[in-house]
Design goal:
Helix content: 25-40%
Protein name: S16 family serine protease
Number of helices: 8
Mean pLDDT: 85
Number of strands: 12
Strand content: 15-25%
Keywords: Hydrolase, Protease
Organism: Streptomyces aureoversilis
Largest sheet: 6 strands, mixed
EC number: 3.4.21.-
Low-confidence stretches: 15-32
InterPro entries: Lon_proteolytic (IPR008269), Ribosomal_Su5_D2-typ_SF (IPR020568), Ribsml_uS5_D2-typ_fold_subgr (IPR014721)
Radius of gyration: 25 Å
Oligomer: single chain
Structural class: alpha/beta
Strand order of the largest sheet: 6-1-5-8-11-12
């Protein structure tokens, strides 16, 4: 027979029961509390040698643009908006799925909390990326901006990570591989990376998701900033070859070697 409950024990039991109510309520609400994260997934890819929304992505004036074969696909990720609440369930799902990634909100949206501010920032970054890509391509081609004009058009895509692909696209349309062929060698090649006017290729975010988008859209080769090889190798889709690059010349040399079948001169991660 259980021992009788003393008044002290009875008060303690009531106290614990009362204290447990807010704790249980707090734990129950955790899955619905907004967390300082954003969730990303593979986005669209665009062939910079072709058209997007009815317009040529790269337009050349001052020289006859070449007819090209193959594709050069810039890659994107799609991220939850700056005002979208991400809860614990979203975070757990992002951590357990290979086609999702959880990122700190402030790293994704370093400026502003409104859609308008973010959109303006991304468009400004894209404009700087396009200008740097044009400068890098003209330097490589030894052309003056007075004799060769380049127009770049890519609506609804922001950020600087298409710089490398823009540069390669300009070069392919003007000079190809420099030996009468195409830089692509007829392949579907994708990639990512910022670029400076001197041809330096910089790091970007979301590389594992971009490799998935690239393979989904038919790419067999992916150009990746060398410093992000480890990230690119994580969950790398089958059939996608990684080529690391640090400079524009690295990418061109590797693509030429790939085209000619010189595998020994095609670097790998």
């Amino acid at each position: 027979m259980p021992a009788p409950t003393t008044p002290a024990r009875s008060r303690r039991a009531r106290t614990l029961a009362v204290c447990a109510v807010p704790v249980v309520a707090l734990l129950a609400s955790v899955p619905f509390v907004p967390l300082p994260f954003s969730v990303a997934q593979p986005g669209s890819t665009v062939d910079v040698l072709g058209t997007h929304e009815g317009r040529q992505v790269i337009e050349i004036q001052g020289a006859q643009a070449r007819r090209t074969t193959g594709q050069l696909r810039m890659t994107t990720i799609v991220v939850t908006g700056p005002r979208v609440d991400v809860d614990l369930g979203d975070v757990i799902s992002g951590w357990t799925r290979t086609d999702r990634a959880v990122m700190p909100h402030d790293a994704v949206y370093p400026v502003g909390d409104s859609d308008e501010e973010v959109d303006a920032h991304n468009k400004a970054e894209m404009k700087k990326s396009q200008d740097a890509a044009t400068d890098a391509a003209l330097r490589y081609l030894h052309r003056s901006p007075d004799e060769l004009k380049v127009g770049l058009s890519l609506a609804d895509v922001g950020g600087p990570s298409a710089g490398l692909l823009f540069t390669l696209g300009i070069i392919d349309k003007v000079d190809g591989d420099g030996r009468g062929g195409d830089l692509t060698g007829g392949r579907t090649i994708a990639g990512t990376g910022t670029i400076d006017a001197d041809g330096t290729v910089g790091q970007v975010g979301g590389v594992p998701l971009k490799t998935q988008a690239a393979r989904r859209d038919g790419a067999t080769v992916f150009l990746v900033p060398k410093a992000e090889c480890s990230a690119a190798e994580a969950n790398l889709p089958k059939g996608l070859q990684l080529i690391p690059v640090q400079k524009l010349q690295d990418a061109i040399t590797s693509l030429r070697a790939l085209q000619s079948g010189d595998k020994d001169n095609v670097p790998t991660c």
